[in-house]
Amino acid sequence: MTVIHALDTGFLALEDADPRLSLGIGAVAIIAGRPPDRDRFASTLAARVDRMPRLRDRLSTTWLELRAPTWEPDPRFDVAHHIRWTALPAPADLPQLYELVAADIAERLDRDHPLWQCTVVERVGADSWAVIVKAHHVLLDGISGIELFDALSDRAPAPAAPPQPPARRASVLRMLELPLRIPRAVWSSAQTLLPVLYAAAAPGGRTSLSGPVGHARRYAVARTTMSRVRGIAARFDVTVNDVAVAAVAGAYRAALLARHEDPGANPIRVVIPISTRTADAPALGNQVSAMLPELPVDRSSAIRRLRAVHERIAAHRGRGEAAAEQNLLGLADRLPYPLVAWAFRMASRYPQHRIAALATNVPGPAGPLTFQGGEVREILPYIPLGMRLRTTIAILSYAGHLVFGVTGDFDTAPDVERIAAAIEAEIAELDRLHDRSDETTS
């Protein structure tokens, strides 16, 4: 029996606070050939679930929820409960697949059972099929989501690391130091995070990028190659992540202009999750913090947006905001569960206007995978909506390609396809600009 952590508590509380939200993370694999028969698929999947025992666990709660939920084995575990089969109507093309993915994003997972499922799509195009692997955010983050897909694929499992002896003396010393460490950690974290929290929560002008959302979702995809993005990064001495975030900034600028809104009228911030996963971290679970840099949507030049993204992300990393947030989450683990859950629920109801989007960049498998005997041609990521954000963007690299999965609220973000197209256009524009002489002013 394992007690969930404060951040996991937050994901459950956010979902409980708004019946229109479903906090499932997903990956859509498009696979060559035809799917195996149902019995073979189920038996193969059942064997691979054993690679991650947590996939057999369900959440257990107490009456009145006086303590945090815990993971415990599901006594009725049956892999068949987690497999669905469906078919797209003719012509079974990508737009129809995206509609199915949007419906999958909107549907909540059953908390009476382990919080994951596989949906098999029997045909996509002329010679492919697909599988949607979905798990609740309380079970995993972006990195462990890819590890989950990797474990369910045909790749042989990595050998288990040898068990490490418990560091009893170090644990005792840490307990004795708590009365001194906690006040120092709170003060240090508060000094780092308070300016950012104020900037995010302070009253500001409204944009159509945030606000109440409905039940239904939309989904669209932007594609490019890693070689193209790495070339841009090398040319302008920035990181691959900087290029991806700059493409997101350009897309949101285009969206605001198309919605007849002034991109320079109000500063907007983007949540960028930062992995805090260590080499010895468990395969599943959340090991993540975040930064809240401003998106340079007011810059009319693609290069200036890229440079601003690079400078702002570097500044946020230099201030140690992600580490400070992780420290506060660690301290929250020591607080009573009802208090932590209440704090997250209250945060979900706060009418913030400065945070406009969430963009997460996850490195996927560098080489090609196979799944149930077929070559995985493409992996499309998706993440849910939450915290009044009307769009989110999941960025995933796989086998030399970089894919942006754009999730949008059906009613308030009808232009997710335009946002995806603008991401591709921004990368193409940066690729066209070969040197500083091509730069325009803003």
Automatic annotation (TrEMBL):
Organism domain of life: Bacteria
Keyword Transferase attached: yes
Pathways involved: Glycerolipid metabolism; triacylglycerol biosynthesis; Lipid metabolism
Keyword Transport found: no
O-acyltransferase WSD1-like N-terminal domain sequence ranges: 6-244
GO biological process: biological process involved in interaction with host; glycerol metabolic process; response to hypoxia; response to nitric oxide; triglyceride biosynthetic process
Domain O-acyltransferase WSD1 C-terminal: 285-430
SUPFAM superfamilies reported for this sequence: CoA-dependent acyltransferases (SSF52777)
Family from the record: Belongs to the long-chain O-acyltransferase family.
Protein name as it appears in the record: Diacylglycerol O-acyltransferase
Species name: Nocardia stercoris
